[in-house]
Amino acid sequence: MKALVNRIIHTSVVDGPGNRDAIFLQGCNYTCSYCHNPETIHRCVHCGVCVPVCPTGALTMELDKVVWREEKCCKYDQCLAAHPNMASAKVREYSASEVMALLKNDLPFIRGITVSGGECSLQRDFLLELFTLAKEKKLTCLMDSNGSYDYTADAELMAVCDGVMLDVKAWDDGLHRKLTGMGSRMVIDNAVKLAKAGKLEEVRTVVVPGYLDSEQTVTEITRLLSPFLETGSIRYKIIAYRPFGVRQPFRSQLRVPTADELQHLEDIARRNGFTDIVLI
């Protein structure tokens, strides 16, 4: 079983508790307007648009396919900005054992791994194998997910997954569809089921004033999850939209929230019983 890996961050302190390695998989079933890494959404179609903008010749066209030579890459990412398909040619196909081999030197210094994307649940079988191998190394295993997969119906995966970091992008189904192309019902159901199972590591909401009703989202999701705070804290990350990496025309249309707007949302979450709140 192999998966397309967009990148691996060796040692991260923002992708779950403690020092962790973060593995970003390629491919997503959402097309969020504010996505700050839209190059992870689709797979490369080998159109070749990225090749002429590469300043070091790391990308070449060979037999109608784009070939990436990582050793030549300067990582300035002009190729990603030029790509019209929300994709990247700078990916590698790895088996789970190959990924674990890449993490080998990090093992003495990390608490666990977090798999993100794109949307990591689209490559579920790879996740199962990777987490099983990671557990053999005494690592904790987390998923950073948009919540479109019914996790609690997959007992086999949940047995090796320590928790899900769940994006709750919008409570309102219509707004969620406007943003992602899919409804919010599965996400909300996942939040409750994961909380009941003790597998909800944290909730995340990106605040985009004037585009999403973040006050409604924070109010409703914290009310819904408040009964589960008695058995343990659930972290809530309230994240300010930022334009970095966002594609046009959204980059110039969307507004960054003010500090007061973020504080107002934190106050709502605290009134509904949340204590572990991080503003980003």
UniProtKB/TrEMBL annotation:
Domain 4Fe-4S ferredoxin-type: 36-64
Pfam families, A to Z: Fer4, Radical_SAM
GO MF annotation: an example: metal ion binding
Cofactor(s) needed for function: [4Fe-4S] cluster
Domain Radical SAM core: 14-275
Keyword S-adenosyl-L-methionine: yes
SUPFAM superfamilies found in the cross-reference section: 4Fe-4S ferredoxins (SSF54862), Radical SAM enzymes (SSF102114)
Listed InterPro entries: 4Fe4S_Fe-S-bd, 4Fe4S_Fe_S_CS, Aldolase_TIM, BssD/PflA/YjjW, Organic_radical-activating, Organic_radical_activase, Radical_activat_CS, rSAM
Catalytic reaction(s) noted: glycyl-[protein] + reduced [flavodoxin] + S-adenosyl-L-methionine = glycin-2-yl radical-[protein] + semiquinone [flavodoxin] + 5'-deoxyadenosine + L-methionine + H(+)
Alphabetical list of Gene3D superfamilies matching this protein: 3.30.70.20, Aldolase class I (3.20.20.70)
PANTHER family the UniProt entry points to: GLYCYL-RADICAL ENZYME ACTIVATING ENZYME YJJW-RELATED (PTHR30352:SF13), PYRUVATE FORMATE-LYASE-ACTIVATING ENZYME (PTHR30352)
Family membership noted in the UniProt record: Belongs to the organic radical-activating enzymes family.
Name of the protein in question: YjjW family glycine radical enzyme activase
Species the sequence originates in: Intestinimonas massiliensis (ex Afouda et al. 2020)
Organism classification: Bacteria, Bacillati, Bacillota, Clostridia, Eubacteriales
